[in-house]
Amino acid sequence: MLSTRIRRLICVSMAAVLAACGSAPVGPGFYRVERGDTVSKIARANRTSVQNITRWNGLSNADSIEVGQVLRVAPPAGTATAAAAPSRSAPAPSRDAAPDTPPARAPAVSLIWPADGSVIRGFDGKTSKGIDIANVPGTKIVAAAGGTVVYAGNGLRGYGNMLIVKHDSEYLTAYAHNRALLVKEGQTVAQGQEIAEMGDTDSNRVMLHFELRYLGRSTDPSRYLPPR
User: Fold this and answer.
1) According to its UniProt record, which protein family does this protein belong to (predicted)?
2) What is the total count of domains within the chain?
3) Tens digit of pLDDT for each residue in 13-40?
4) CATH number of domain containing 150
């Protein structure tokens, strides 16, 4: 038991945990970003251009891709570019594997606020991968949506006592800096169920750092939360 915990503390990283939670196979014409990848490298491997990758995926910055993010690497079927593109630009699907093509728009996920308090920091996708909610120590933290706890611990530097809840094959939420964790890995939780108490572990103030990930990519949680 101890050796398992030690291995986790040594090997786990935030990117690896979050990417692993959305690591289902991707369909033909798509690619899941791995550690060390760049848009230029992905474009070369798929015999296309950086401009195409940027345009097909609506990237405002070609340097902003993240581990676990799913990118389109071949033109959409039926386009003029698709007709001219060589068939080898994307690997052929396995006969037994069903395509796992991301939708054109991310489907809405029904979230509730994970804690009462003031939002003291918003999402920018770079230095802030989520939102920070401040309140007093011990403030109740609840699951923003139902799902399964896939991580409960303090082995991720900078996040303190942290929970990650996987909601389906596409979405997960993360809850950091907790004073106490009230659920365990593998446990199923319902939306609104208390899962932690707000604290200041690995933080200079009492707050909840709350993240939402879609297909491994950080997404602004405030877009999915109801108005207060």
Assistant:
1) Belongs to the E.coli NlpD/Haemophilus LppB family.
2) 2
3) 454 555 555 555 556 777 878 878 888 8
4) 2.70.70.10
